[in-house]
Amino acid sequence: MKKESIISFFLFIVFFFGSAIVVFADPAPKIKDIQAKIVATELNDDGEPTELALELDDEWYHVDMDAKGKELLEFVNETINATVEVREVKEGESTYFAVKVISYEISD
């Protein structure tokens, strides 16, 4: 086989599979406006929440515990209207959804 043919074949494979990787790659995080209940998922020894999830349509979304996420600790069991960045997280065999809270307000 000629060297040029091998190079052409290699470039075709790279282009074809490179395009497939782009098509099948996980989508970027999505920004959504939601109404959800704040649920404690972990408690410390004093019974205070340390990890949270947002319950929405019978699904739970793990809350990133950055500054905004930590603000929600005092509103466990409250319902909020929030703008969140949703992403799918894969850990080994498990897949779950996580959210970064961008803004929120306590629902009436």
Task: Describe the structure in brief.
With 108 residues, the protein is an alpha+beta fold. Helix content is 25%, strand content 49%. The chain has one domain: Beta Barrel (OB fold (Dihydrolipoamide Acetyltransferase, E2P)).
Features:
single chain; 108 residues; alpha+beta; OB fold (Dihydrolipoamide Acetyltransferase, E2P); 2 helices; 25% helix; globular
Protein described:
The chain is of the alpha+beta class. The chain has one domain: OB fold (Dihydrolipoamide Acetyltransferase, E2P), CATH 2.40.50. 25% of the residues lie in helices and 49% in strands. The protein is built from two helices and five strands, in the order αβββαββ. Strands 1-2-3-5-4 form a five-stranded mixed barrel. Strand 1 (30-43) and strand 2 (49-56) form a beta hairpin. The longest helix is centred in the N-terminal third of the chain and has 22 residues, at 3-24. It is globular.
Percent of residues in helices = 25-40%
How many strands, what sense, and barrel or not for the largest sheet? 5 strands, mixed, barrel
- What CATH first level would be assigned? Mainly Beta
Strand order of the largest sheet: 1-2-3-5-4
Rg from alpha-carbon coordinates: 21 Å
* Tally of DSSP helical segments: 2
Question: What is the level-2 CATH architecture name?
Answer: Beta Barrel
CATH topology: OB fold (Dihydrolipoamide Acetyltransferase, E2P)
DSSP strand tally? 5
Order of helices and strands: HEEEHEE
Mean pLDDT: 84
Number of domains: 1
What overall form do the CA principal axes indicate? globular
Strand content: over 45%
Low-confidence stretches: 19-25
- In whole angstroms, the N-to-C terminal distance is 73 Å
By secondary-structure content and strand pairing, the structural class works out as: alpha+beta
